[in-house]
Amino acid sequence: MATSTLLDELRRRFAAAVSQVAGREVSPGETLLRATSDPAHGDYQCNAAMPLGKPLKRKPREIAEAIVAAVRLDDLCGPLEIAGPGFINIRLRDEALAGRLGDIPGPRDGTPDRVGVPLLTATDHLITTHQGRPLPKVILDYSSPNIAKQMHVGHLRSTIIGDVFARVLSFLGYPVVRQNHVGDWGTAMGMAILGLWYLKTRRRRGEDAQAIRDRLAAVQDAKGKTVSVRQELLAPIAAEWSEDLANPIPPGLDIPVQDLELGYQFIQAVTAVSAGVDCPVRDPDGRSDQLSEIARIVTTHLQAGGEANAYERQEWREACEISLGYCQRIYERLGVLLNRDDVCGESFFDPRLAPVLAELREKLPAEPVAGRACTVLREDDGAQCLYFYQADGTPQFRNPDGDPLPMIVRKSDGAFLYATTDLAAIRYRIEDLGGRRLIYVTDARQKLHFEMFFQAARNIGWACDDVTLEHTTFGSVLGEDRKPLKTRSGDNVKLSELLDEAERRALEVVVQKQAERDRTLTAAQQQEIARRVGIAAVKYADLSRDRNGDYVFSWDQMLALQGNTAPYMLYGYARIRSIYRKAAEQFGAPDVYAGAVQLQLGTPEERALGLHLLRFPEAVTQLAGDLLPHTLCAYLYDLAAAFMRFYEACPVLKSETEPLRLSRMRLCDLTARTLKTGLGLLGIEVSEKM
Ligand code: ARG
What we know:
single chain; Gyrase A, domain 2; Rossmann fold; binds arginine
């Protein structure tokens, strides 16, 4: 992307010099130029000389000398220093730092605070173009929960992480299309529809949820028992279903999502336990079907559509409404961008599945093609399967026995699968939506599924070289016992309860902080702060760790006031604001961005803070590339730390001179705005006073 972060600028200039020395075109990335972690080695370091030694048959140190002689940097850097075998240490000149920092304009009223963007955009068109072309369109698939089941913590992670990508990529000017690929189709929907019906019949019979829960437990208990035991348990259920089917349910019952889920779980258990048991259910037309088959039959009715199946269609819609309404409430509480317009679930792709299969038939070979990697479509026991081969003819994926592992796209009974939908969706996203960078955020367990359908999309020719496909995975959420997070009773954690608890615990922290500092925020103000801190704590705990790892969910850790936590960052922000406010009150609210104010970076702490502020665009562009939110958290945490070191060493209120005070006040304000913008990109709301 055409940006001008300090890092990009240095890389470009070094690329020109290294190209001269190497006698060939060297790209900015090949300069191996990066920020240093130890200020003793300068601010940045260029390691281009080492790998050039062999091809140029020269000592790397000599090459480094040649690069130093060739590079044009006088306006930006002090004298370059060559260290060890040929590292080039780069130290920016203080005036250059102050000048660049001085270019960041003051906050503009009414526009969102886009601190640092001027650094990305010497002129505004830079962020909207990509080497002269429009920036590639990003399709972002995240959250994507399943209808009739409540979102679980895995969906929570996907939602929180995906939200950061949506914000960061839009911030940088990419067109972003959010896709909430909800599971609203397929065999589970028959169970959802039936579950909803079941729930309503029980209501009509005057039964409450607890009674259903008890019966569910009894059914689950019967798993693995003999046929006669299971029949004894299930026959009365089948008999009641026959009665209830004769008596249509009037519309207009208000079903909460947890009941919908309970109904679904009940049907799921009944379907599993009734397999192989003779339990006929009669419908009003006198037809009879086995209990174990009903959910499947309902699914076929739903998918067939038409007048005759209007009931299934309507109940399905109701189940979707209940679930999506619940999801939207969670999204709003979390403060993520997703809304109903972003929902483009599996059902949307249903009409596209048969044509996609036809296209697979037309475009894919039935046998591996010698000499090139390919995807093959073959029938296996009546099922349509994709097999993947490498150029040397060996299978690309194998099952644990070492046999080639297929991806089934149509079962022998004609049903399509999750994979078929993803094939239709990837085609739609590239060809209809015009996506050029497709990002999917799910847990790591789906890795193989994504590798397979990505490969298929490449081999069919939907995803050409100008399309990048990224499966952005994350680990599991573990409890403090290091097992997958569950409630004490062993149930899945309900997200709404989790957020309630976050806010309740955050309130304790806020109240305690208030008492310590003798503050007088009203109860309502404290509540609001606790809400922000609680939600921020849940999000930040997730985002601040490398998403690839599992993460241990710990209230104490995420609500700690010290360390890389949300409370630390939010209190840090509020503190900087209060320092600034005090100075502004005492000195008549000067305009610290006025042209006459010169930034002064005379102490090591001021300089370190200034340099770190200038690196904000680097942190953001890096995140846009590698999609690792914890790197932005680390940047912000370091920024807060650099500020604290500055504040300890450099008095603001008691600065020796007025120009110095104004410069320091401006550093305070730049730091606060950068923190606010950066936390905002993480989807975290700050408070001005805490
Ligand atoms: N609904 C799926 C699940 O809960 C996630 C869908 C992810 N997106 C996709 N295109 N497959 O596991």
